[in-house]
Structure formats: C-alpha cells, structure tokens
Amino acid sequence: MEKASNLDSKMYVLDTNVLLHEPLAYLSFQEHDVVIPMTVLEELDHIKDRKHDVSRDARVAIRGLDEVLKDASPEQMLQGVALPSNKKAKTESRGRLIIVNDHLFADSISGLPGNENDHRIINCAVHLQKQHSDSKVVLVIKDINMRLKAKGAGLKFVEDYRTDQLIDDIALLTSGYKKIEGDFWQQVGECETEQQGRDTYHHVAKSTISDVFCNEYILDESDHFAARVTSYDDKQITLKDISVERLMSHTAWGVKPKNVYQGMALDALLDPSIELVILTGPAGCGKTLLALASALEMIIEKGIYDKVIVTRNTPEIAESIGFLPGTEEEKMAPWLAAITDTLEVLHKGDENPISSRNYIMEKANVQFKSVNFMRGRSIQNAVVILQPRIGDILKFLPPCFYWPVEKVKRISKKIDYLSYSEQSLNNKPLLKICNLQEKYNTKPSNDSIFWEAA
Predict the structure, then answer these.
(1) What are phi and psi of 294, to 5 degrees?
(2) Among 268, 225, 269, residue whose Cα is nearest residue 245
(3) Are 112 and 149 within 8 A, CB to CB?
(4) Quick check: 274 and 264 in contact, CB under 8 A?
(5) Is pLDDT of 446 > 70?
(6) Strand, coil or helix: what is 384?
(7) Mean pLDDT (whole number) for 88-106
C-alpha cells in the first residue's frame, strides 16, 4: 500500500456498524482513501443471512463493495481501487477503496486482545496510523464504547459517522417564519398586487426579504401583517396576504388557535395544496390536537378526504405486533392512545364523550395501522397522521413519501433527522415542515421550510 504524500491526506477506516447504518457510507469520503478491514467483511457475511432489516443492509453493503471491486486484481485491492464518482463531491479528486487483511497484524500493536473483532479493527487502524505517519488516519465508528477503546489504544483520530445528519441541534434550525423589524410595508418600495378570488398576492423585490423558503411565514412588529411565501425567483418573491387576524380566526372542529404560531399551524394543516405538514414542539403545545382536529374538519365537515390513517413506529420491544389474538388496529391501539385521548378532549362537553369518540372514529373512518405494513401501500384521498417516536431516525418514513399519492395529506408529530437531498426553487410548494431537524422534500422540486407550532 502506497504511503500518502502529505499531511492533508486522510485515510478513513470504517467499522461494520457504519456500513450497517448506511451501506454505501464509503461513497461519502470521495477525495480520501477508505479502508475496509477484512474483519468487517467477515462480520457482514455473518449478518447477511439473519432475518432482520440489518441483514438487508449488510447485503446492500456487500453488493456495493463488490460493484466497486469486481474487476480489481488482488494486488489492486490491496493498493486501492478508485472510488466511483459522486455528484455530491466538492472536488474532482477521487480517493481509493482499500481492503486490508487485518489478521496479519500483531496484537501487540495496540495491546488489545486479538480474539475480538472490535479489537482487530482497532488494531488495524493503529497499524495504519504507524505505517502512514504523514497521513491522518481516522477510525469511523458508531459504537461509543469502541471509540473509547480506540483512543485508549493510542489511536489519535476517532469519529462518529455523521455524514447523514445535516443538523443535530434543534436550536440551530430556522423557526419557519421571519419577523421583520418595524412595519413591513414601510420597507417595501414598489409592489405589484393581484387578486385571485378571495386571496390577495403581493410581488415584492427579492432583496426585501433575505433567504426565504416556500411556505415560510412573514410577520412584522405591527401584530397585524402576516403573509406566506408562495413562490420566488431571482428577482421577486410572491406573498399571499393572510394577516394575523385571519390566522387567529381559523377554526378546525371547534378548535381555535391560542397564539399566532398555532394559527400558522392550522393555516398549513387546512390547506389541501400542502401535502406534508410536520409539527414539533414541547409536550402539551397542541400538536396532536391541531392535527386531529384539522383532519376531522377536512373529512367530516368539508368532505375533502375520506379517512384518517394513524401510524407510529413502536418501541423495540414491540418491533413486531406479534401473533396474539386481535386485529392490527386492536394491537396498535395502546401505542396510539394519544389519538383516542385527543378525541375525548375534543368531545369532553358531550353527554357521553366515549360514545362520541367511537361515533366520530367510525364516521371519519379513523384507522390505526402498523408501520410494519405501511411500505408499498397506495393510499388515496386520506389524511395520514404519523406519530414517530422521538429520538430515533424514522427509517420507514422516506419510502412512505414515495407512495402513489392522490390527494393525500400527511401529518407528522416529530422527526429528529432524515438524510435526504436538499432541493430548491419551486413555484408550487407542497410541503410545510415545522422545526424538522433536516430539510426533506416530498417531491424532487419542493422547498423545505421550518417553523414552530407552539
């Protein structure tokens, strides 16, 4: 294996759990060398035949590595094979994918016992660090304890794999609305206004508001002006004039907003042109209440949709809904008690709230579904409320957004982060995201925007 030529070069050693977390992770290090120890390949081989999702990830990783190395000779594999070009790469330089037989290295290099796979991978990284002293050798792992072991064994650079996380601190996100200092109209020069039915649209210069997103709300300090960005280009921004009074006048199934933030949430939830609305916020701020009230309003009162489908990812202890007696909905009911509780709150003034809840669930065709059976379904003319568990990446969600869609409104309570591409400019925005920890798009040309619903 040739030595790196300067201190700017990096060599990344990938652990097995990185490839299981993202099977094509080696493509994220385009301009640097990527090392796969032989022990990693052995672990992938042992995992690929298990009957779990992790087995699929292992097979994808193995097939991906084979695609890169299939035409390489044993000597070329040891020297390194050029990584495939990636459009996301910021430089034209391409690193190499290298397979290293870590069984050849003595255990004394790191001082860790050699009978454990983790120790052999750490031992490989320490060996490369000594062999390539003029290069930065980085061990990339997802295991915290293994990171501590690696540092204790003398490895200088140990990192977590964070390429798939754009933002990991919710405080760093935009709020989803901009508050302009002073009076907004005092800062606008020329403005073209047009009337489309009951709605008024203003076309203002792009320089008036910086860094806007489609569906982002604009407020000022007058407590009267409110608008939503419907489209923009290099020259101008199109604003839909809403006003704070109109936001606060929204009503869904008897529920009225208590503040302008809930008013913005209802405005987005009740707009059929916005396919996806994602609400986040502290417990008790009204996420589930607003979502369910809006769903009932659009189904029963307005007749826009036909049914409500509620789903969530269950805890690991209940990853499978099991084979105990009962229908899918009966098994999912305990995990979706927040929905039934909210229905009772909406009808607490009735003579018999429980009977009212059951009646509304039947009339609105509220269905509880398991995530395990959501993939591949074609759901039409429905409101889908997703209630993922906070703290885990919602792996089932991205495929769901590619369902064949016909007037489907999807409402999600909270998602921590999703690793999907950032897109731009669109004159027909379909997405409204509330304080989501990553940009995500339902369609290839949608803008993502962030805002608080509490």
Answers:
(1) -65, -40
(2) 225
(3) yes
(4) no
(5) no
(6) strand
(7) 77
- Cβ(272)–Cβ(402) under 8 Å? no
Query: What contacts 313, CB < 8 A, 6 or more positions away?
Result: 371, 388, 389, 392, 394, 396
> Of 33-37, 232-236, 269-273, 446-450, which range is least confident?
446-450
Task: Please tell me the distance from the alpha carbon of residue 249 to that of residue 404, in angstroms, as a whole number.
Answer: 34
CA–CA separation, 133 and 114 (whole Å): 23
For 164-183, what is each residue's pLDDT tens digit? 544 444 454 556 788 888 88
Q: How far apart, in whole angstroms, are the C-alpha atoms of residue 400 and residue 33? A: 35
Q: Work out the end-to-end distance of the chain between its first and last CA atoms, rounded to an integer number of angstroms.
A: 57
- Is the predicted pLDDT of residue 51 greater than 90, yes or no? no
**In contact, 340 and 333? CB cutoff 8 Å:** yes
Least confident segment among 46-60, 85-99, 420-434: 420-434
Dist. CA 344–CA 339, nearest whole Å:
9
Residue at 4: amino acid letter = A
Q: Measure the CA–CA gap between 351 and 75, rounded to whole angstroms.
A: 80
Output b/e per residue, 293-311; b: 16+ Cβ within 10 A. bbbbbbbeeeeebebbbbb
Q: Which two tokens stand for residue 163?
A: 């390429």
Q: What is the DSSP letter of 99?
A: E
What does the DSSP assignment read for 117-150?
HHHHHHHHHHHHHHHTTTSEEEEE-S-HHHHHHH
DSSP label at residue 298? I
For 300-344, write each residue's pLDDT tens digit: 999 999 999 888 765 544 445 555 566 766 766 666 777 888 888
pLDDT digits (tens, 9 = 90+) for 369-412: 776 666 667 778 888 887 755 433 333 333 334 333 333 444 54
CA distances for 21 relative to 14, 18, 31, 58, angstroms:
11, 5, 21, 9
* Residue whose structure tokens are 């509620």: 310
With 50 as the cut, is the pLDDT of residue 453 above it? Answer: no
Q: What is the DSSP letter of 330?
A: H
Backbone angles phi, psi at 202, to 5 degrees: -115, 135
Check: pTM over 0.90? Answer yes or no.
no
Phi and psi torsions of 53, nearest 5°: -60, -30
CB 121, CB 114: distance < 8 Å: no
Determine contact, residues 321/328, Cβ cutoff 8 Å: yes
